[in-house]
Amino acid sequence: MDKETIYFDNAASTRMDERVLEAMKPCFFDVYAVATSEFGYSLGIEAREALDYARAKIMSKLGNPEGKLIFTSGSTESSNIAIKGVVGKLSEKKGKHIIVSKIEDFPVLNSAKSLEREGFKITYLNVDKYGFIDLDKLNESINEETILVSIQHANQEIGTIQDIKAIAEICNRNNVVFHSDATHTFMRVPIDLSKLGVDLLTVSAHTIHGPKGIGALYIREGVPLAKWIDGGFQEFDLRAGVENIPGAVGFSKAVELVTDKENEQLKNIRDYLIEKVQKEISDTVLNGHPQKRIPHNANITFHYVEGESITLHLDMRGFAVSTGSACFSRSLEASHVILGIGGNHERAHGSVRFTFGRFNNKEEADRIVEALKDIVKQLRVISPLKGEEAR
Amino acid sequence: MKFPYSEKVLEHFRNPRNVGSIENADGKSTEGSPACGDMVSVYIKVDENSKKIKDIKFESYGCASNIATGSIITELAKGKTLEEAKKIDWREASDALGGLPKIKTHCSVLAVDGLRAAIQNYEEKHGLVKERIPTTKEIVLKRLKHVMNPLAGLDLVRTNLIGNIKVENGTVEVEVDLPENHQFANNIREEIIEKLESLWDIDKVIVRFSV
Description:
Chain A has 2 domains: 18-257, 3-Layer(aba) Sandwich (Aspartate Aminotransferase, domain 2); 259-383, Aspartate Aminotransferase, domain 1 (Alpha-Beta Complex). Chain A has helices at residues 18-29, 42-60, 75-90, 106-117, 135-141, 164-173, 193-196, 234-238, 245-257, 260-280, 307-316, 336-340, 345-349, 362-382; strands at 6-7, 67-72, 97-101, 121-125, 146-150, 177-181, 200-204, 215-220, 284-286, 297-302, 319-320, 322-323, 351-355. In chain A, the strands form 3 sheets. Chain A has a 7-stranded mixed beta sheet, sandwiched between helices. In chain A, strands 9-10-13-12 form a 4-stranded antiparallel beta sheet. A two-stranded parallel ribbon of chain A has the order 1-11. In chain A, helix 1 (18-29) runs antiparallel to helix 9 (245-257) and helix 2 (42-60) runs parallel beside helix 9. Helix content of chain A is 41%, strand content 15%. By secondary structure, chain B is of the alpha+beta class. In chain B, 36% of the residues lie in helices and 23% in strands. In chain B, strands 1-2-3 form a 3-stranded antiparallel beta sheet. Chain B has a 3-stranded mixed beta sheet with strand order 6-7-8, covered by helices on one side. Chain B has a two-stranded antiparallel ribbon with strand order 4-5. In chain B, helix 1 (7-14) packs across helix 2 and helix 2 packs across helix 5 (105-125). The interface between A and B is medium-sized, with 28 and 33 residues.
């Protein structure tokens, strides 16, 4: 992909900020030793300091809660550690029941499904038309054998932000561990874990202009978690292996670079694009909640047309977006999120996700809407679906 | 720039030929459904004497390979006799497009099926079905494989929604294992009727929802 591309797929991954690379460089060429204890050699101590600094920086952005933060290879791994780690400690003792929402991202959803095949009982909570879970239903679903609730902070496709404070209260009251996947909210939406009662939180670097291959899992004080990778004692004796110090330092730099002003700017682009599309293109629907959504996500269905055709046309004109259409995915399955919020297959196939980042601006939003007007019109001419039947 | 399709596919995708519908078409068909992600309609005008396809148009709700295949089959079929056009298969369409990704076979086969179904529709309407095989359960099942189960995105047969089938004195009765008030019951009923009523020895199609 060249720099000319207008990239609106920042929820998938972002272009790394060059300042992040600058911050990482010394970790490759100067502080390249493994992170040793203070009784090791000086280069190792410097490496440890760099790692500690990165860890502290990320914790500070989570409200300096009590507990620890371990670095992982990314949010997929973080969610796997959270779910399977709790299972490893509690399934024998307490039970084999886990609660997730129907619209979780694949690391959580497929972890749940794989446990289900092993004999666990999984409750897949329904969501309403915006993607919110029903808090009363959650409360009712918890039983004596429930060991874990895993509900995302915000949705990967439609951007709906769950009330994790209320979810945490329910879980805390019932003495059930609560994990939340915050991949799409960390640094975009305030998260103060010192006030939230969340037990485990998954975060990632590559969605905020940091490097790929690094994420983290916050673990509240006292939450039982089985060791994930055997080997040495790294990462609080939970995840062995030589620490990814360049990644951790890059992650902390990425965190440092996000500002409130930037998030405000993303929200402006989002609202501008949504309004413009709805005004200038007929038969569209916004997926997700109009306000309670992350600042950098717009998800819109263009009725009567199929998403892969839209994305390919956009690609040929230099725009990168994604869609919930079955044809776009390797599994050939329509978006479980759009189906989960009660949309039919047509709504899922015609949904397009626009996600914004640091390097986007309003002028680009103008350009994509102009392109979309033309593309959607052209595809609707071809389409045999013209009216009510498609809804 | 890198694209997942050949130049030829992209060219047909960008500028599809023979797009639209034909009013009073001699033969027409619709394959697939919005639920399965791809849907294609084919319309043909046939010269009564020469049995050549005079005009052909298509509409597509689908991905790039569906649109491109729809476009290429109209080009391949135009001017051919019905017998010749019937022989156009997925391989020929795919070759003419410089190859299609394997995972997209389903989307492109649909367009080829659309052409065949339109020809069949013409033949059935004009009493041209040569081998007048009496309709059996198997023939009904084969047709029902083209009716989609919108919830699964697969056909009714593969998703085990077809119960008893009865063929008697020109009437087909099909039992669908769904409740009468199911959100897609009406769509499914209409699609089943459309697929079966053109059979040469069938006058009446009854669809029952058995749950």
